[in-house]
Amino acid sequence: xxxxxxxxxxxxxxxxxxxxxxxxxDGGDAGPxxxxxxxxxxxxxxxxxxxxxxxxxxVEPPKPDDPWVAAAKSRHKIPLWILPVLFLLPxxxxxxxxxxxxxxxxxxxxxxxxxxxxxxSGCAGCHGxxxxxxxxxxxxxxxxxxxxxxxxxxxxxxxxxTEDWGIGNAIGDPNREGGARLAGDRxxxxxxxxxxxxxxxxxxxxxxxEQLSGEELDAEEIEALDLEWEELGGGGSEHG
Length: 240
Fold this sequence. Notes:
It contains 10 helices and 2 strands, in the order H-H-H-H-H-H-H-H-E-E-H-H.
C-alpha cells in the first residue's frame, strides 16, 4: 500500500476542518460533529412551540347583534316608579269624567238671566228676594199679573223708572183689581234703560212673572216667549 505523505494528510485535515467548522477532521472528532445536526433538529420544534406560546392568540371580533336585538338593548326601559301611575291612570280618568258631569254648566235661559239681574240690580232690596214687597210694591202671589198683562208690557216701566214715568201716573192697568198702582206711592224706582239691554229687561220681567208671581204658561207659550227673548238679543251675551 502506498504511503501518503504527512503534509498531504495535514492539508486534508485542515480542509476538512474548514468545511466542518473547525473540527480536527479525523474519525474520533467526527462523532460530536455528527451529533450537532440532530441536536439542532430536536431543538427546532421546542423553539417553535415556545414562539407559538409567546405570541398572543388573535382575538376574533364579536359578532354584531341582529337589528331587533340591538333595538331591544337600546330601548329605554320603563322605570319602576311609573308602574303605580299607569295603574291609577284609568281610575283617575273615571273620576275626572264624573267630576265633569257634576260640574256641567247650566244652559243660559231667559229665566236664569232674569234671576241673576233681579239679585244683582237691587230689585230684591226693594221688592224682597221672593217678591213679597217692602219699600217697593209686592210682586209675588199674582200681584204683578194684575198690573201688567204681559212681560212685554213691563218693559217700558222697568226701562223708565219712577222719574221718567212721571210721579202720580198709573203703572200698568189703571183698572187693575185692588186699585191702580201709581208711580211715587212707594220708594222711587230707578230706570234701568241705561244699564240693561231690552233683552235683559224682558228676561227680568219674565222671571218676576213666572217665578215670583206664579204665571202659568203652556209649552207653546213658553216657546214663543223664548223665541221673542232670542230675537231681542237674549242668550247671545251676558247682561251689562
